[in-house]
Design goal:
The complex is a heterodimer of chains A (about 350) and B (about 180). Chain A has helices spanning about 25-50, 65-80, 100-120, 125, 130-135, 135-145, 150-175, 190-210, 220-230, 240-270, 270-280, 285-310, 320-340, and one strand at about 1-10. With about 350 residues, chain A is mainly alpha-helical. Chain A has a single domain (about 25-340), classed as Formate dehydrogenase/DMSO reductase fold (Up-down Bundle), CATH 1.20.1630. The longest helix of chain A is centred in the last third of the chain and has 30 residues, at about 240-270. By secondary structure, chain B is α+β, with helices and mostly antiparallel strands. Chain B has one domain (about 5-180): Alpha-Beta Plaits (2-Layer Sandwich). Chain B has helices spanning about 20-25, 65-70, 95-100, 120-125, 130-135, 150-160, and strands spanning about 5-10, 35-45, 50-55, 75, 85, 105-110, 115, 140-145, 160-165, 175-179. In chain B, the strands form 4 sheets. Chain B has a 4-stranded mixed beta sheet. In chain B, a hairpin with a 6-residue loop joins β4 and β5. The longest helix of chain B is centred in the N-terminal third of the chain and has 9 residues, at about 20-25. Chain B is globular and about 50 Å long. The chains are: A mainly alpha (about 350), B alpha+beta (about 180). Chains A and B meet through β1 and α3 of A and β2, β3, α2, α3 and β6 of B. β1 of chain A pairs antiparallel with β2 (about 35-45) of chain B, so a sheet runs across the interface.
């Protein structure tokens, strides 16, 4: 039997025996980034509908930019915690490196924030009347935004374009690395985008279900909560709105499942390094979380539960939404961990 | 402009690790880390086995993924000798370059920035060999200009068989091993 035995004297921390430089912070950042990206796309689509003159009360998600803004801060905090040279973080904005997905992502995030904040102004003065009274310019800005259909349309389009950019970037960040065979697939960008859309639909469904038919809270914290989770206008959206979210989530989850299958097909028909990388998910350390967390809990179970809900064979609950969110995080956690553990195998002779 | 590289004769290397110790001393490498290391590879079918001992380090690739993924330009190919270097006060410690390097040649310095072999650029600028090359007791390591067809490096590679590590990564490494 032919053997190939490699021994090394190197044992650098977090590099050997397998790469483990990114721990919980990066999966959290990628999950939140995907979630916010999905929220921006869904909110953007609803803004375009708003600009067309459709009833504002029928949407749950126009106000999600406020939630997106808060979540994005949480994601950025996780990213910042991961940096080893924190004081030099400003350096990211002193250069633009066209070949670096991280550089693209940093600049996209710089555009995402003002768009999220401007989008939030559509709803914020309603939730915080004192804000408009105290700072009249905010009130005027909000009135101008909501009064002008072209501005809403522009803002909606900006949300969709930046949402797609942010969602795809979270996957491209990993997929450009030739050194990590599990990541080195063009499927990863679309997969993370669709997973972000599915978690966003689940998150909006979750918050809208929790607050269904409840009177809108007021005051500083109550108003903030209302801005996050209450629908536009006085009347809550009809039950059809929630069904639309569930239907959208069914489509996103189905596409996600197809993309995961395609990822495997691509890897299994690839190089020896890529076939070896698949083993890490199929039977290695990450197999339980992948098959149990991502596939069973995060995709298959919500697909079945939501199908039963849509066909009135089961009562609507928030359980599928919670499972989708858990599965979305599990996908990032597994891909970040297993991808780092994957490596190129030496095929050449001595 | 030179294009520096390294040629290592695996038939002369005895795996004494002098190069590793010299690097750690010369470059004040933090305890528990290394910028160069030894790899022993045994191949074949018993009893017909062959062994290669390689002194490995950053390969200062011509097509360096660590440079491409850097969001700040901290990882770069310097102009003078086309060596891959890191500007510590531009590095944010995102570790993308650590993940992008197929050789695992980089590590996060305890002070926060990405670190790796510099080909002892501070010595090379003074016309000295890198510390690892200078101390090698079997003189198995050669450093010089790969762009100069008359250099000792090209002379050795033209007269002997050589290989690089993970050529399939497409990084065009500049450390060559004579077999």
């Amino acid at each position: 039997m032919s053997i190939q035995e490699i021994t090394t004297t190197r044992l650098n921390p977090h590099v050997d025996p397998v790469l483990a430089v990114w721990e919980w912070e990066i999966p959290v950042y990628l999950f939140v980034g995907g979630l916010v990206a999905g929220m921006m796309i869904i909110a953007g689509i609803n803004m375009l509908r708003l600009a067309k003159g459709e009833r504002t009360e029928s949407f749950y998600s126009v106000q999600s930019p406020i939630l997106g803004f808060l979540l994005m801060n949480f994601g950025m905090l996780a990213l910042f915690m991961d940096l080893e040279h924190k004081l030099y973080v400003y350096r990211v904005y002193m250069a633009f490196e066209p070949l670096s997905p991280m550089s693209w992502g940093s600049w996209i995030l710089l555009l995402v924030y003002p768009v999220l904040l401007l989008s939030a102004l559509i709803r914020l003065p309603q939730a915080w009347p004192w804000l408009g009274e105290g700072i009249p310019v905010v009130q005027r800005l909000s009135e101008r935004l909501t009064a002008n259909a072209r501005v809403i349309k522009l803002l909606g389009s900006a949300n969709i374009v930046l949402g797609i950019g942010l969602g795809i970037y979270t996957g491209i960040l990993l997929s450009t690395m030739v050194s990590r065979p599990l990541w080195n697939s063009a499927i990863l960008g679309p997969l993370f985008l669709v997973s972000g859309l599915s978690t966003a639909a689940a998150a909006i469904h979750l918050v809208s279900s929790v607050t269904r038919r409840a009177p809108a809270p007021s005051g500083f914290l109550g108003g903030a909560l209302a801005a996050l989770v209450q629908p536009l206008g006085d009347n809550p959206p009809g039950p059809g709105t929630e069904k639309t979210l569930v239907r959208a989530d069914q489509a996103f989850l189905s596409v996600e499942l197809v993309l995961i299958c395609l990822l495997f097909v691509g890897l299994l028909s690839g190089s020896a390094s890529q076939i070896d990388a698949v083993d890490i998910l199929m039977s290695g350390k990450y197999a339980v979380v992948f098959w149990g967390g991502v596939i069973t809990v995060g995709i298959a179970t919500p697909l079945v539960l939501q199908a039963l809900e849509l066909t009135h064979r089961l009562r609507h609950t928030i359980i599928p939404a919670i499972l989708v969110l858990a599965g979305g995080f599990a996908l990032r956690w597994v891909m970040v961990g297993a991808g780092q553990a994957s490596r190129m195998l030496a095929a050449g002779g001595m | 402009m030179p294009r520096f590289g390294m040629v290592i004769d695996t038939r002369k290397c005895v795996g004494c690790m002098d190069c590793v110790v010299a690097c750690q001393t010369e470059n004040d490498v933090p305890s528990g880390f290394c910028k160069d290391w030894l790899v022993t590879e045994v191949r074949g079918t018993f009893p017909n086995l062959s062994m290669e001992i390689r002194s490995e380090r950053c390969h200062h690739c011509d097509n360096p993924p660590c440079v491409y993924c850097c969001p700040t330009g901290a990882s770069h190919i310097e102009d003078w000798g086309k060596m891959v270097q890191i500007t510590a006060d531009k590095c944010i410690g995102c570790k993308a370059c650590l993940a992008a390097c197929p050789y695992g040649a980089r590590f996060a310095h305890p002070d926060g920035y990405a670190d790796k072999c510099t080909f002892c650029m501070h010595r090379v600028e003074e016309n000295l060999d890198p510390a690892c090359v200078a101390v090698c007791p079997t003189h198995c390591m050669y450093f010089g200009d790969l762009g100069d067809p008359e250099s000792r490096l090209n002379e050795l590679m033209n007269s002997r068989k050589s290989h690089t590590v993970l050529p399939e990564a497409g990084t065009s490494p500049r450390v060559f091993y004579l077999t």
